[in-house]
Sequence to fold (236 residues):
Amino acid sequence: EVQLVESGGGLVQPGGSLILSCVASGFTVSSNSMSWVRQAPGKGLEWVSGIYSGDTTYYTDSVKGRFTISRDNSKNTLYLQMNSLRTEDTAMYYCARDDRRTYYYSSGTYYHADWGQGTLVTVSS
Amino acid sequence: QSLLTQPPSVSGAPGQRVTISCTGSSSNIGAGFEVHWYQQLPGTAPKVFIYSNTNRPSGVPERFSGSKSGTSASLAITGLQAEDEADYYCQSYDNSLSAYVFGSGTKVTVL
Fold:
């Protein structure tokens, strides 16, 4: 059974840093594409960052240069290093295992197949 | 502002059919990227309900179906039930942003 458990959230002042962790079980993080998705209080979902084959990483524009996604294969864990935090980064942060259909002529578009329960990050003075 | 537009809310009586639209553009849905749909119950993490435009994961009721045409996609719920009351989000990829994008979300209310 696939399980994802996030931790590391909390209250931090603007300009501060946090590291979020997501421990996976039931599958290998290194063999899967993974994402972080966030949801501000009372708002919709926003994809934040993803890590793909060859450890290629991508970020939404608002976090580029501030956030870093990485994974530790020995611990089967996904991370999100968040620096220079802003009040607008306040949100529930979910990690997700990504998947996509494979066709003989191409690959499909990634979707977030499995989700953790989330960890809350609050940026406030 | 989301690149994928959904109606803020839809409602229907039990047993009725409701549809949720997801309107994009030539840089996302219209570019051929697949559309996926998620259900989010209050206080819980989202769950994928439709993937790759039309496919239901195991465990998702058959009354849920997805379609895609041009720059838009739709999620239909046939035979609405009380437990379907939730927020629903569409998701795709946008090649102008080089990012995955979600719709603005739709709250389904069962009257």
